[in-house]
Request: fold
Amino acid sequence: MSESTNALAHQFDDLEQQARSNTLGMWAFLATEVLFFGGLFTAYVVYRHAFPEAFAVGSKHMDVVAGTVNTAVLIASSLMMALAVQSAQLGLRRPLIMFLLLTMTLGAVFLGIKAWEYHHKYVENLVPGVNFVWEGPLRNQVQMLFLLYFIMTGTHALHMVIGICLLTYLVLGARRGRFSREYFFPVEIIGLYWHFVDLVWIFLFPLLYLIGLHL
Amino acid sequence: MRFLPPTASTGAESVDSLYYFLVALTFLFTGGIFLSVTYFAIRYRRRDPRECPRPVHGSALLESAWIAIPFVIVMFIFGWGAKVYYDLSVPPTDALQLYVIGKQWMWKAQHPDGQREINELHVPLGRPVRIVMTSQDVIHSFYIPAFRVKRDVVPGSYTTMWFTPTKVGRFHLFCAEYCGTEHSGMIGWVTVMEPTDFERWLSGAGAEGSMAATGEKLFQRLGCAGCHRSDAPGRCPPMTGVFGSSVVLANGQTVIADEQYVRESILNPKAKIVAGYQPVMPSYQGQVSEDQLLSLIAYIRSLAAPGTTEAGTAVQPQAAPPAPQPRRSRVSEGPTTITQPERRQRK
Amino acid sequence: MSPIVTELPKIHYLNAAYGLKSWLLTTDHKRIAILYLITVTLYFFLGGFFALLVRLELMTPASDLLRPETYNRMFTMHGIVMIFFFLIPAIPAIIGNFVIPMMLGARDLAFPRLNLLSWYLFMAGGLFTLYVVVIGGVDTGWTFYVPYSSVYSNSYVVATGLGVFITGFSSILTGLNFVVTTHTMRAPGLTWGRLPLFMWSLYATSLVQILGTPVLAIAVALVGIERIWRVGIFDPSLGGDPILYQHLFWFYSHPAVYIMVLPAFGVVSELVQTFSRKRIFGYKFVAGASIGIAVYGFLVWGHHMFTTRQSVYAGLIFSFLSYFIAVPSGIKVFNWTATLYKGSVSYQTPMLYTFGFIGLFTIGGLTGLFLAAMGLDLHVHDTYFVVAHFHYIMVGGTVMAYLGAIHYYWPKMTGRLYPDAWGRFAALLVFVGFNLTFFPQFLAGYLGMPRRYAAYPEEFHLLNVMSTAGASVLAVGYLVPLIYLLWSLRHAPLAGPNPWGARGLEWQTPSPPPTFNFEKTPIVTDETYEYSLEEEEVV
Reply:
């Protein structure tokens, strides 16, 4: 990702090679991310298989409304991101900045709702390792669900924060007029990242929030 | 200098045969590669710094040969290794049942008649022995080189191993999985005895009542007997004949009632509900020690065989069991307090 | 052969800029390679120091030199330093960084600044680990098995885990950089079918780094979370499953073995051609075997767990798949041997390491067959047999190849040769010392000596004495090259662009190369390794 005023970095022959390299680099990085979350999803599958009832009971304590709203917010932010990429491809500076800011705002809304949810869990004494209290049966097993909930959504939220930082970088670049019809791949690959992070949530939402509704 | 540990079990010989085969194979291939490299290196050494040999680009025939031949060889080894493993994993049904608990840093063993040992294990010659093992803390691994057997001992679940000793003597017992500071001190001895000596040893080892008897007392004390009644089956499934049978669960699955299943049913009863019953049993997590769990399992196991003495029937206490006593199935009801064995173990 | 060289090129990557800043902020792949060379060498000798203490302790059966708690820290630190800070970065980050862009005819890697970031991450992870060494060490074994690591250990597990976690990202980014570079930075005419074999093996390595390392990262992170907050992800007393950790750990750590050894395959493929002056026998098979090993490497992790409560059937599948790995490994050894046939074999230092590699890797690989045989594994698992096996692969294989590569590329890196007689002497010393150290461990292992024992019964004594004696020879063998290579920096004769008469674009540019490697982008018109053609056709 070039920061130099001259968009072409010294190691490349032309912009096309540079864009191709950067896009491939992002895809390779996303492959790493898939495996990173894959470890967590494996843990989830193993424990859900081992403690189906506890997971069903525990998931009733998830805030389905907040989760649904957040899902909608993220999907909307993905749409904004796609529009931003399109604006960049067409070389439209103002729409690009606007859509990037919208994407960021929706991302921030998501994080706000997430923080509110975390706060609720804290008030309800459902944070493992901090104040987990569970009177009913299967305490350890329910705790496992909440543990996975916090680790998985926490890792996801961390990715969202990183995404917002990257978007800020794009907005600053766009304001300085760095992107053009020829040079827009930074917007495109950060867009890829943003869509990936949204996609992770699309898996997290049903796995964590919705199982209790069906058991 | 020795190159092999003593060969003292039936499994040891089959492991050694595979080992000899692989050693021979290793020498054959390493020798072949070594000779070819040496020969080529000398025969085709650089004589003139400017020489430039003609290129040889490869040979499909040779490539297929050294793909196909090693493949056949390794598949053969796979089959052989799997066979040996399978035989070492599936114990005969008439095996003598022993229980081992690993903890940092000692091995605690218990015989069905209640005799306890630490870092020692006495077993009779020529009889299959099956060991059910668990750990109180970290992962250990129970390893007897002379028998060529090793199994990890995992906290929270049971693993099993079996062997049939073929030699009288004392053999090393090691912990093979790194378990902390005194890992290398977690060693002991396995003593293989003639069957008559073994019976004599058993009677002299000062048991406090068989494990099944201890388990039965626990079964009463913890209140299990109030529900799991064999005379009036009601809220809970009776325990008679359960062990070793297959159980149909409420979700339609079928499981074999083995040690792991009984353990889980005590500690986490909601996990696998027997078909036709309500999930009413509370968890005993934290209320029973690993020792007590094994006693309960020994008790429930003793109820498995048909014709087993029913719980509650008074039988002679077994402080000094006569030699030809059948190993499982006798249950005693004596006035001994239940906490006794536990206190001993804490020392 | 190249003509006698009387002076270095006027401007090259080493003198293009001066000062500490020009090194610490460099984006030149060659300078970053030198940074790695210096730091990785330090870690190598640090890890070797721990190994020496371990071997000294094991000279006598009782634990007398070190107390068990110290001994446990020593073997743990030896494992962690050697695996994460030497074996994994050694060939990719030093040799790979240095030669990949040149092999491809590129000016630099695709992401030079990412490359520098990798080095800084490596340093950050390494400093955490050094910090742990200073404040008291870690005693879990490099495997961090739970629940010992997460609940019971009284050592600095979290700090070490953080070090490994950060270094893991360094490894991921390096792999990512290489993959992209291989795809997009090849010179015109350099098709996939013409790639040097070192590129093929590093490409395969990089795939494993990208796909395996994140799983280790998450596994180590979960151990840290469990330890810090006392929650039960893996702890069985809180409902967790300690075997799940082992699955996650070995899902990375088995492929990690290939991260360490695949680059060595690439090095040997290069050396065996250069020093027999002949194109490799069966190029496509050797290249394909690298990819095959990388792919199969992901399917066999369960063979580390035959003795756990993994089911018999899972074990059967893992054992079956493990034997598949034997085939591509065999292909490589047979093809290297066949390359010598009708070649022009010279016995210069790098080639001696190559001979050593072929022999020791063959033994290491074949003893892997013992361990994958499930029934036999029940006996030899977690004994010195395993220790000997992986040291034959890692030290007999990777370290031999690494030393071969350093001697091979030293003239390219520094512009100077080194005293070849000393080089050959050191190679011989390493070979003898290595075998004396590790062969007795096979015997000790089958005799039943468990690994990670500070004290052991009397019957293993003689074998351990032999092993310790060998280790001291090995230590000398590693120190000798350090001395003469440093000496050569000032005093050795100049090398010229291509002292070995080797093929490949990296030998077409001056030694040391200029900052952007080539004056103009080379165009490749021939198949790779055409030794029969005259020398000057590329560039």
User: Anything to note?
Assistant: The longest helix of chain A spans residues 139-175. Residues 111 and 157 of chain A are 7 Å apart (CA to CA). Helices of chain A lie at 15-50, 52-59, 64-90, 93-123, 139-175, 185-210. Confidence is low (pLDDT under 50) at residues 1-5 of chain A.
